[in-house]
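Incident log entry.

Two folding requests arrived from the same account within the same minute. Monitoring flagged them as a possible duplicate submission, but the sequences differ. Recording both here for audit purposes.

Request one:
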Amino acid sequence: MSCLLLGLIRRRGGVGASVGVRSLASIPSLPPAVADFVKGAVDECKPANVHVVTGSAEESAHILAGLEKDGMVKRLPKYENCWLARTDPKDVARVESKTVIVTKNQRDTIPVPNGGAKSQLGSWMSEGDFQKARQDRFPGCMAGRTMYVIPFSMGPVGSPLSKFGVQVTDSPYVVASMGIMTRMGTPVMDKLAQGAEFVRCQHSLGRPFPLKAPLVNSWPCNPEKVLISHLPDTRQILSFGSGYGGNSLLGKKCFALRIASRIAKDEGWLAEHMLILGITNPQGVKRYVAAAFPSACGKTNLAMMKPALPGWTVECVGDDIAWMKFDSQGKLRAINPENGFFGVAPGTSLKTNPHAMATIAKNTVFTNVGETSDGGVWWEGLDPPAAGVSLTDWHGKSWKAGDSGPCAHPNSRFCTPAVQCPIIDPQWESDEGVPIDAIIFGGRRPEGVPLVYESFNWRHGVFVGASMRSEATAAAEYKGKVIMHDPFAMRPFFGYNFGDYLAHWLSMETRKGPTHLPKIFHVNWFRKDPTVLTLLPLDPVPVLGCSWGLFGP
């Protein structure tokens, strides 16, 4: 180890600058616990060098320039600092079938069904099988590549609700994206130097040099050996073989939901797959709402909604994940642990989500969307391009309306800073979080489920969340329009046994100390009328539902 050369990034007057190479043991900026973690990862993965990420603007520009040189992204000249990535067609979504929770006892992870049936509420792997799978994947997996060490915070760095992580990865695309999706770099390392605990995240694309086969779209991945492993007892995540965001940006679903839900159970709070928004009525009364929807079911559109009713305003705190904890006065407070939006592009337009369109106009990484000949992006749901402007699809091939396949992949994404949202809530980075007045559950149900109803009480509300079902979407590998059980919109993200998860939710009603439980509702924005037109979040229905529940009798 002492002879391993490491690229050290130091700060000089706030500017990150490379100052040569040193051994890991001689880097004074790495706190002991971080150094131990990095040393173990280096010993196992055998990278050519190590880059400790500072999070500076200069460093970000350098990372993107390197990605462009390697052909992993291309600049979009129509916009300010925007980039397009095209992945290997085998690496386009979360892979639930290869996502596991590793615990000593199976019942700690999943309810064990009778007759050996496969659980639909998580996937368990034994510790022995995990060690075999790890040994088959990680040794030497970063040969010839740079290992990036990313210190990051989920939530505002100073918030008591926030948690820290350190991710090692051989993907500069992950570094660029984590710089958008998390608070990343030197301020977090300073906290770790003070002894703060952190989740250990290890990720590899699984394509060491020399390559044994050519890359597709210059996108390194190893789809045959993809495995996303979570070790909640030791607060570890190990992801192998995929560069797609949900599998490689380990601060997102892996940390913020699967590991965090277990931490929340142990510490008495909630980590949920929920948007957070503030809604103000014409009288100036403001309420905050947390809402759970499965992926690709309109969370981002609702979180950034432009109300059609005069006098109403909506402001966005977050569009995907909520960490919620009761304060000393018994009020449930929530933070958005993320720093950006990782939204589904198709269907996003000036009609359905004008605020999202404004947000993504700069400093954005687009993945698997279509490209216009004038240096822009395009996807289904946008207006046709101007006359004389041609389209290239997500495979990099010429495309026109009427072609058999879509121009943009159905799960194509934009990764963009939350602070750019024109309706970002003034309290979105509040250390204490925003007060939650209502929790909403909802899914994609074409028929049979009303637009909105309120639960009788907290226990009934937990039942409503537990009985959620929704039409499958492109956010995971499922095909067709099968209606799937998706309790709490957490089916792919439970970090521990669903029975224990239900008990944890029910325990909120009997917790010690003052408790002001929020109201609970169920909504269905996707019910279709007799002409098979879907009621979208752009309509006043969501505002009416919220006003009825929050401001009405």
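Request two (distinct sequence, not a duplicate):
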Amino acid sequence: MLAIHAACEELAQTLAKGRPGGQSAERMRKGYRKYLIGSHVIFFRLQPRDTVEVVRILNQRMDVPAHL
């Protein structure tokens, strides 16, 4: 869990610097982005007022479309 927390912090810092962060996950859902950390994927959306909404944190082995 510490690695996931650290990845969320790293993602927040990247976004705070004005960089897009992560990769597009538009194939899964409109507006979604993803950030890979080890065997997990953080799915998130950028919201108004510089807000990041973490939608799901899933293991890559899971059936991702079924959980989004």
